[in-house]
Amino acid sequence: MTTALIILGAGMGTRMNSDLPKVLHHIAGAPMLVHAMKAGASLAPEKTVIVAGHGAEAVQAAAQNWDPDVIVALQAEQLGTAHAVDQAKDALRDFEGDALVLYGDTPFIQPQTLEAMATARAHHDVVVLGFEAADPGRYGRLVTHGDTLEKIVEFKDASEGERAITLCNSGVIMADAATLFDLIAGVGNDNASQEYYLTDIIGIARSKGLTATVVRCDEAETLGVNSRAELASAEAQFQARARANALDDGVTLSAPETVTFAHDTVIGRDSIVEPNVVFGPEVTIESGATIRAFSHLEGCHVSRGAVVGPYARLRPGTELAEHTKIGNFVETKNARIAEGAKVNHLSYIGDATVGEKANIGAGTITCNYDGVFKHKTSIGANSFIGSNTMLVAPVTVGTGAMTGSGSVITEDVPDGALGLGRTRQTNRPGFASKLFQILRAKKARQTKGH
Ligand code: UD1
Ligand code: CA
Known about the structure:
Elements: E1 3-9, E2 26-27, E3 30-31, H1 32-40, E4 47-52, H2 56-66, E5 71-74, H3 81-86, E6 98-103, H4 111-121, E7 126-132, E8 141-145, E9 148-153, H5 160-163, E10 167-176, H6 177-185, H7 200-207, E11 212-216, H8 228-248, E12 252-253, E13 266-267, E14 272-273, E15 278-279, E16 283-285, E17 290-291, E18 296-297, E19 300-302, E20 307-308, E21 313-314, E22 318-320, E23 325-328, E24 331-337, E25 342-345, E26 348-354, E27 359-360, E28 365-367, E29 377-379, E30 384-385, E31 390-392, E32 395-397, E33 402-403, E34 408-409, E35 418-419, H9 431-449
Parallel strand pairs: 1-4, 1-6, 4-5, 7-11, 12-14, 13-16, 14-17, 15-18, 16-19, 17-20, 18-21, 19-22, 20-23, 21-24, 22-24, 23-25, 24-26, 25-27, 26-29, 27-30, 28-31, 29-32, 30-33, 31-34, 33-35
Antiparallel strand pairs: 2-3, 6-10, 7-10, 8-9
């Protein structure tokens, strides 16, 4: 079945106390909206419409950054969830198929759940995702009769008997798109909130002889974020699941509760991740790599058998080939490190390529930035960069070449050559002893004076 996604994200999110639209707050390195888009992507939607209002421009930029084909519909005034969905009508004018409504502030809906809804759609006109709430609070209540969903009553409008129902509305709804917009046309706002409730379409559908049913999911999946505290607990929930998944996938985490994952972190089997490692977005780690304690990685690829850290920082564009070593207090950015190369201590390698089995000495820095432009450094295979070398880019160090410790390398070093760029050392015999004498005598005079 062809599906269109409608994701609601026009609300201001007052309780976030933020200038940022609520759906753009991040969980695991991605806006909540992107989590909803990723969940919906499991149904391979033909079209995705985001309904935006507060901060619509920023919402559009974030949504299209993830998927350039996304359509953003504006809901200038937030008159209720039915009114919000109705704003997607134009964008879906020529669309034939099912529409799935998701909320942009409900990031944890699982693909299997949406698949179950799609399956239920084969037998029912409208499918609503419900859950048994531990504390039903102010959720809309699902009034059922056997398998049939008869209506949804909002808490504010519910009778005491209806409030006693624990089966609640998640907000996720699926129906044929044309049917959905037809039903919405019949929704009014004569209720406690004077809002156009999407939930009213169930009663309307039933009165027209259409069928409706409930698919159930875990309450945890329907977790919505309305405040910073809820954002923090959503993050915690995401992390707990990501850690459990990594362990299941055969990754060793010696202190799982201290490792932070991003929404898209991929780690191969038999890798080891030590405590306090942070994965930012777009990290892939192949099998059998070791990420040692307190390392921070983002936008990078780490190959089999590589060892990173402790205390390493891999920034975007870092590519580590097999059996490379990036040691403590090393920062890399936009750097391709070839097989077996080592950067073991206190270095910055940016906008650079490092050839196979090259050894980069402690304190080496690629001076890639002249204040205006970025320049490239190329370091040849089997080369040896002396400690504390400044490589002033653009510059190339050839295959099997060396640089002397403390050199400032401003010119290319040919293959097999030794590049030296430092002042020659001179020794003054006896000078140190004399200087010590003078200084100690001075100190003695000062001590007497006191
Ligand atoms: C809604 C449901 C309720 C359900 C609950 C689950 C309705 C009437 N009620 O209530 O049954 O139990 O979600 O969390 O649907 N939004 C817009 N434009 C609007 C109004 C809302 O884009 O005009 C968006 C919000 O940004 C939010 C989502 O729709 O992402 C839900 O709106 P919200 O006002 O939070 O609905 P609830 O009162 O929580
Ligand atoms: Ca809500």
